[in-house]
Amino acid sequence: MINAKIIGVGGYVPEKIYDNAYMESIVDTSDEWIIRRTGIKERHISADNEYTTDMAVKASEKAIKNAGISPEEIDLVILGTVTPDYFTPACACVVQKAIGAENAAAFDYNAACSGFVTGITIAKQFIVSGTYKNVLVVCADTLSKATDYEDRATCVLFGDAAGAAIVSASEDGSGIIETELGSDGDLAITALAYRNNDEEIEKRVSHKKETIWMAGQAVMKFAVKAMADASRRVIDKAGLTWDDIALVIPHQANYRIVDSAIKRMGITNDKVYLTLEKYGNTSASCIPVALSEAVEKGMIKKGDKIVLVGFGGGLTWGAAVLEW
Ligand code: ACO
Q1: Which of 84, 163, 258, 315 lies in the 20 to 30 Å Cα band around 96?
Q2: What pairs with residue 76 in β-bridges?
């Protein structure tokens, strides 16, 4: 039976850093408050002329190299973002051309911070149906370009990054074992596109409609339950228990969310890999960036079972259990 397996991952973060001292210089906040309430110390920020597709190309090239395939072997490029360069063309098409994936179809999708689990779930469907052999899933966001730097409740949270994975057909039974996606359509996190809505614009400190606004407390409550419960369900469906899981890589939004979710899961901190302190919340790329770091550090061995779990705007959630 054909399964879908991640055979290469890659991450990219831009050079420029906004540390907590910089955040103190632009809004009424403190290093102490940010660390105590979020766990974040630094965020990487794209250059003025560096956009989502530029970062996505860099992460994709690393994933392709690590997978040991050629760009021509890729059948499909899918890209998850909430900060596209263009409404059209899709960022995936720009990446497809830039990396030389000349035989690939390409499209974008939007599941906000749940984008990586959503992407590997989409890739798996194309692979197990026999339609495609190699799918590039890439998540990239320049959240800094959509951040309201007058709003201290959101601007301390976000950074920029890209993360990519090659998902390929596997016949050895390992790979993506189970996934679950969900949505509740709640407008607790918004950034407006064409829609005009005075009430929404009023909520923003800067009154700039394209910036991200969020009901922080409501999102936190949702996130803890969604991440813990979805993880448990995919583990159950896979016929596994938490004892079988070597590592959990959650969406890296806020240390308090991760910590509460871990407690609800009933696992210990040493099973969880975090990059939150140095990158903050980089949307859908949090999970693949952390995954590629964990792989590089040798923290994931062949045969290990790992859980990837995220939540985000939509509101959406997604969980996956994989055998590496
Ligand atoms: N520095 C100092 N004080 C602050 C800051 C700050 N950076 N931000 C908020 N405060 C203040 C508030 O104004 C409030 O003051 P008040 O009591 O005088 O009104 C006080 O701190 C408490 O505010 P809360 O919002 O209740 O603080 P909370 O403990 O909830 O932390 C936070 C806020 C960090 C935003 C938290 O709610 C959170 O992390 N929520 C989830 C965010 C998230 O995970 N989003 C993910 C999705 S993003 C995406 O999809 C792109």
Answers
A1: 315
A2: 105, 135
User: What is the chain's mean pLDDT, rounded?
Assistant: 97
Check if 81 has its Cβ closer than 6 Å to any atom of ligand 1. Answer: no
- Identify the helix (H) or strand (E) that includes residue 142: strand 134-142
pLDDT tens digits, 135-166: 999 999 999 999 999 999 999 999 999 999 99
Question: Which residue reads 């949090």 in tokens?
Answer: 286
pLDDT for residue 172: 83
Pick the atom of ligand 1 nearest to 143's CA.
51
pLDDT above 90 coverage of the chain, percent: 98
Closest CA to 29 of 213, 218, 155, 207: 155
Residues with catalytic annotation? 113, 251, 281
- Which of 30, 143, 160, 220 is the best mutation target for the ligand 1 pocket, counting ligand atoms within 8 Å of the beta carbon and taking the most? 220
Give the distance (Å) from ligand 1 centre to CA of residue 270: 26
pLDDT, average across residues 247-275: 95
Q: Which amino acid is present at 264?
A: R
From residue 321, alpha-carbon distances to 71, 92, 230, 245 in Å are 27, 26, 10, 9
pLDDT at residue 227 tops 90: yes
Q: Using the structure block, give the residue that is written with the tokens 């403190």.
A: 30
In angstroms, what CA-CA distances link 284 with 20, 142, 197, 290, 298? 22, 11, 26, 11, 23
- Which token pair is 22? 């910089």
Q: For 29-41, what is each residue's pLDDT tens digit?
A: 999 999 999 999 9
Euclidean distance between CA atoms 274 and 287, whole angstroms: 9
Report d(CA 162, CA 290) in Å as an integer. Answer: 11
Give me the phi and psi of 88, to 5 degrees please: -145, 140
Question: Residue 116, SS3?
Answer: helix
Does residue 31's CB lie within 6 angstroms of at least one atom of ligand 1? no
Q: Which band of pLDDT confidence, cut at 50, 70 and 90, is reported for residue 173?
A: confident
Q: Does the bond joining 315 to the residue before it have cis omega, within 30 degrees of 0?
A: yes
Q: How far is CA 45 from the centre of its chain?
A: 16
pLDDT, residue 10, reads 98
